[in-house]
């Protein structure tokens, strides 16, 4: 009996040692992860009790994940009652091309109705919100005025305010938060589907911060009740690599980081990689043959770009797939030199900037940039330094306003 007791005692000591070791390892892991960025969605313990017992409307797309699993699937498995999912541009599953109208549908996996917020129905209606107790917004943004997720955010906030619904925002880092640059849109005539806010081309805010900005700067007729689950261990200068592609044509981290600079070329004769599997990392046009050795051929790619600029024609230009992104981070600026260079190299300068609205002196490029001044400066040969100098008054004013709404250093 004594021998048996001794054996049991030694076994208990061994188990205790293993448990202590495991606890210590877990503690060390937690300490080592103090600097790890944790999205709002991944902090489930902070908001799950608030969702339980409520009928939830979720604004989401393929970037809405908890860990690596869809937020919709994860929350349903946790017993959350999601009655509707609202999808932005590119759709809930993120497989619609840029600008494509996305129809309402039913999610095959969960049976949950999916309401499109891109096309004619940009804002949830009173009827669509009638059976919802709480709206949740969980979409990855990339920090540009012409990336339409912030438009969707405003429309959702407006609908929530009008129908007395609270909006819970699961915040995510802005991968381009380090740069606040470009001309500030100041005139109504330049407002369009790719620019409805009086901000610079890159605003340097997360979705949560931008929601506070919309509330505070009077974009809504009445303020929306918002509750934000902040990103843990995050500041605006901290690099963040997106775990999921935020849209079909931002399919690499390189594309995400170059997007603010290369999306300027939409509205010009230059193809920016749409129609290839290298979007927003290459630039070119057939007319540049003989001036650049790098070439590629845009084609129709379903779910990415069905009708790319210069479809089925060989384009010549710049290959930026290996461009050192840290140069952008150091400069804290959009790259303007590529635009100046390709305009200078383009033989038919009169047709470099493509026309925009009929019967107006506003090009498609102007609508993207938010002003006609940059186009006129490029045509006039104004230096990059002087162009940037012309942006400064607007940028300084915006930066001072922005400070009021920041959640992170």
TrEMBL record:
Superkingdom per UniProt: Bacteria
Signal sequence bounds: 1-21
All residue ranges annotated as the Peptidoglycan beta-N-acetylmuramidase NamZ N-terminal domain in the record: 56-253
Keyword DNA damage among UniProt keywords: no
Molecular functions per Gene Ontology: peptidoglycan beta-N-acetylmuramidase activity
Positions of the Peptidoglycan beta-N-acetylmuramidase NamZ C-terminal domain: 257-408
Xref: Pfam families: NamZ_C, NamZ_N
Gene3D superfamilies: 3.90.1150.140, Uncharacterised protein PF07075, DUF1343
Keywords assigned: Signal
Protein name, entry field: DUF1343 domain-containing protein
Originating species: Dyadobacter chenwenxiniae
């Amino acid at each position: 009996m004594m021998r048996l007791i001794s054996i049991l005692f030694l076994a208990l000591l061994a188990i205790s040692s293993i448990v202590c070791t495991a606890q210590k390892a877990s503690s060390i892991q937690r300490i080592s992860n103090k600097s790890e960025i944790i999205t709002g969605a991944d902090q489930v313990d902070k908001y799950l009790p608030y969702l339980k017992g409520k009928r939830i409307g979720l604004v989401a797309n393929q970037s809405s994940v908890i860990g690596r699993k869809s937020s919709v699937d994860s929350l349903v498995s946790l017993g959350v009652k999601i009655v509707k999912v609202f999808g932005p541009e590119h759709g809930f599953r993120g497989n619609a091309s840029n600008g494509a109208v996305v129809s309402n549908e039913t999610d095959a996996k969960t049976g949950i109705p999916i309401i499109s917020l891109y096309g004619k129905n940009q804002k949830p209606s009173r009827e669509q919100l009638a059976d919802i107790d709480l709206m949740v917004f969980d979409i990855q943004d990339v920090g540009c005025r012409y990336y339409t997720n912030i438009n969707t955010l405003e429309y959702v906030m407006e609908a929530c305010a009008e129908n007395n619904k609270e909006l819970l925002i699961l915040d995510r880092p802005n991968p381009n938060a380090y740069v606040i640059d470009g001309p500030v849109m100041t005139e109504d005539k330049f407002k369009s589907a790719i620019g409805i806010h009086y901000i610079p081309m890159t605003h340097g805010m997360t979705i949560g911060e931008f929601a506070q900005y919309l509330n505070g700067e009077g974009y809504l007729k009445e303020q929306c009740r918002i509750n934000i689950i902040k990103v843990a261990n995050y500041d605006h200068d901290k690099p963040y690599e997106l775990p999921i592609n935020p849209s079909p044509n931002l399919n690499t981290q390189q594309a995400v980081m170059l997007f603010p600079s290369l999306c300027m070329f939409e509205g010009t004769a230059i193809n920016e990689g749409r129609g290839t599997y290298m979007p927003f990392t290459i630039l070119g046009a057939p007319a540049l043959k003989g001036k650049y050795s790098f070439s590629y051929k845009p084609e129709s790619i379903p779910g990415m770009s069905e009708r790319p600029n210069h479809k089925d024609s060989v384009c010549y230009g710049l290959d930026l797939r290996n461009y050192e992104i840290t140069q952008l981070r150091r400069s804290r600026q959009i790259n303007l030199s590529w635009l100046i260079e390709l305009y200078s190299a383009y033989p038919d300068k009169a047709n470099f900037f493509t026309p925009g609205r009929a019967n107006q002196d506003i090009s498609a490029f102007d609508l993207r940039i938010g002003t006609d001044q940059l186009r006129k400066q490029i045509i006039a040969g104004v230096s990059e330094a002087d162009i940037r100098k012309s942006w400064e008054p607007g940028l300084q004013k915006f930066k001072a306003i922005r400070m009021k709404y920041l959640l992170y250093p």
